């Protein structure tokens, strides 16, 4: 099992300290960071994911530095706070494309396992975003309560996990154990 280690990590932007002397170990499981706006969650996640270098301290995955190290993505996964997807893909196609992009040995099996894990097999053939429709007034809109066209499919939560609008990110495959 892999371990993500954060040792004395700080990050500042000019005179602004975004993250101050964080030390912890993240093991197997799922980890989420919660906190108020400006607490440094996004900055810490960017450092954990190898997208941002710490100003001081180290972030390692099984002893290897994560900064600018794409090999870590075969071990950890990251769900960003702002998701974007190609509207024409189905859920299964999107998961499969990501498995292929990460070079997994059997992308098809990995995509099936991922969809089973979040109990989304029944919705895997849905498009990532429903097609635009016309409202009775004739203007185009996404299926929302403000669009009253009866052809718009019902929007309901699917699966057992739904992303929230909180300013958090999750690292999939890790659980947090803070160190003193």
**N-to-C CA distance:** 22 Å
**Based on DSSP secondary structure assignment, what is the total number of beta strands?**
10
* Share in helix: 10-25%
Could you tell me the CATH topology label of the domain at 4-81 and 168-178.
Rossmann fold
Radius of gyration: 19 Å
Largest sheet: 5 strands, antiparallel
* CATH classification, class level of the domain at 4-81 and 168-178: Alpha Beta
Sequence stretches where pLDDT stays below 50 over 5 or more residues: 132-180
Structural class: alpha+beta
Provide the β-strand percentage band.
25-35%
Using the 3D structure, state the CATH architecture of the domain at 4-81 and 168-178.
3-Layer(aba) Sandwich
Structure description:
- There is one protein chain.
- The chain has 180 residues and is α+β, with helices and mostly antiparallel strands.
- The chain has a domain at 4-81 and 168-178: 3-Layer(aba) Sandwich (Rossmann fold).
- Helices cover 17% and strands 26% of the residues.
- The protein has helices spanning 41-48, 91-101, 107-117; strands spanning 4-13, 16-27, 30-32, 56-61, 64-65, 77-79, 133-134, 140-141, 170-172, 175-178.
- The strands form three sheets. It has a five-stranded antiparallel sheet, covered by helices on one side. Strands 3-9-6 form a three-stranded antiparallel sheet, with no helix packed on it.
- The protein is globular and about 50 Å long.
- The two termini are 22 Å apart.
